[in-house]
Amino acid sequence: MNAADLFRLLLLAAIWGASFLFMRIAVPVLGSLPTAFFRASLGALGLLAFLLLMRPLWNYQGKFRACLILGVINAGLPSVMYCLAALVLPAGYSSIFNATTPLMGVLIGALFFSEGLTTSKAAGVALGLFGVAVLTRTGPVDFDLPLLLGAAACLVATTCYGFAGFLTRRWIGPLGLDNRLVAFASLVGASLFQLPLFAGSLAWQPPTSWGGPTVWLSLAGLGLVCTAFAYVLYFRLLADIGPIKASTTTFLIPPFGVLWGALLLGEPLTWDYLPGCLLIGVALWLVVRQTAPIASRRNA
Question: N or C: which end of the chain has fewer CB within 10 A?
Fold first, then answer.
């Protein structure tokens, strides 16, 4: 990996880490569902502007509806879950829980998609879930029902990411569709999914305030930078260094999430994070390292 690729990898982690900060600013003012809707819709508009400049061949090969459905699973529902979690969890917590995405992918692959499971991956999943439990008990936030509900919302989001990865490979992968088109359609699908939820939230309990410049700058950062621009940056990394190395950004997001929360929101930066983070970090290493599947070893 050259210096330019490493810089883009760190930049992407810093941007996605900041997304938890922006949600933490916007959600208490606007509410979870409006924030999630504005993130998806602004992201879709930002990507549309980018695509109009790049002028790609708009050919979905009959998979536009599949891309919309993937958008619900990969962006629509997870965004709602993280915005709900932002009501009760510091930005650092949500970013750490987000790092369990590879663990959920391994578990879902083994349970639903007949993926080979290694001893290392199985141990990683078990250790990672234990790390989540440790973080909720030893972290700087009091252990109570809101904390558990926020953690559960984050794990629902990472479970959606796990399913979306396998469904994308099954529905879209063999066709070689332009990733930028898939990303745009996904955000359109997420926006359409969230639109009735957004409208319902306005009818049921509209925001007492629509916020000021800080809130709307946070929404712009969330939608245009952390979603639209981040997608473009991520797909550039996929092309340059491949999916395995690009996925290492998962390891780098939590430190940035904790750092931004501490610097800009005054969230606690203590050693209380360390035990759970170390367990989750070791679990991720067990999951991503290359080993032979158990079935293959038994047949050898």
Answer: C
